[in-house]
Design brief:
The structure is a single chain. With about 90 residues, the protein is an alpha+beta fold. It has helices spanning about 30-40, 75, and strands at about 5-15, 20-25, 55-60, 65, 80-90. It has one domain (about 5-90): Ubiquitin-like (UB roll). It is built from two helices and five strands; from the N terminus they run E-E-H-E-E-H-E. A five-stranded mixed beta sheet has the order 2-1-5-3-4. The radius of gyration is 13 Å and the shape is globular.
């Protein structure tokens, strides 16, 4: 069976208070592209309190692991998967 061109996903912030249902995530896109696309829709901060730009990781709840930004949606995710976006905090 061929992979669908788009799949449905649910994406939340780390607090679980902001949840976005994505009905048509293109399976050819990367996880990094998906994260950049949904950040604006979810009104998540782009900078930390000190003004440093934040980068986000997506945690795949089904497998309990962080996805690499370069992974293709169609390879890493299944229909109905839930992702949690977590800001990368650089110590320093």
């Amino acid at each position: 069976m061929a992979n669908p061109a788009e799949i449905e996903l649910e994406i939340s912030d780390v607090s679980g208070q902001k949840v976005l249902s994505v009905a048509n995530a293109p399976t050819a896109n990367t996880v990094g592209e998906l994260i950049r696309e949904v950040l604006g829709h979810m009104n998540l901060p782009k900078n930390d309190s000190g003004g440093t730009p934040l980068t986000y990781q997506a945690r795949l709840e089904r497998e309990g692991r962080h996805l690499h930004a370069s992974e293709r949606i169609g390879d890493a995710l299944e229909r109905g998967d839930r992702l949690t976006l977590q800001p990368n905090v650089d110590a320093g």
